[in-house]
Amino acid sequence: MPGTEKTQHISLTTQVENRLKHQLSIGALKPGARLITKNIAQELGVSITPVREALLRLVSSSALAVAPAQAFMVPEISLESLLEINTIRTALEEMAVVAAAGKITPDREQTLNALLDEFQQALESGVMEKILLANRAFRFEIYHYADMPTLYAMIEQLWVRLG
């Protein structure tokens, strides 16, 4: 029936989690940084409960660690872990690129070219945050084109862990 289509509802917890994942994946939250539930809730204008739930989800995926006094921490990453995660991430990203390559339509090619132009402009600006955001947007658009949601989620999780 018209007008009864399901609208996608994203819970507040998931919205907070996605925002924190994004901040982690672009390096806005540095290793060793303490994240205090109350402060994040105030900054985002939400109650403590969805923030705490989002932080606990990130702990369960090893993106954050629990710290004393109701705080969480961005974990330090050893060189050994960095190399391991990069090796795995590289293999998964290659798999996604190969899967996406056969699914590039003219519209998708146009989208990728526009994202590549944005990346080039970001490089020319020299602003690291712009460079990181444009790089991530380009890469994740390709991973999306692979049409492999589990693979996409695995790559995203590794990006979140590395920052």
Automatic annotation (TrEMBL):
Organism: Salmonella enterica
Protein name: GntR family transcriptional regulator
Record-annotated HTH gntR-type domain positions: 10-77
Single GO term (MF): DNA-binding transcription factor activity
This protein's UniProt keywords: DNA-binding, Transcription, Transcription regulation
PROSITE patterns in the record: HTH_GNTR
NCBIfam families (alphabetical): PRK11414.1
Top-level taxonomic group: Bacteria
PANTHER family assigned: HTH-TYPE TRANSCRIPTIONAL REGULATOR MCBR, TRANSCRIPTIONAL REGULATOR, GNTR FAMILY
Gene3D superfamilies tied to this protein: GntR ligand-binding domain-like (1.20.120.530), Winged helix-like DNA-binding domain superfamily/Winged helix DNA-binding domain (1.10.10.10)
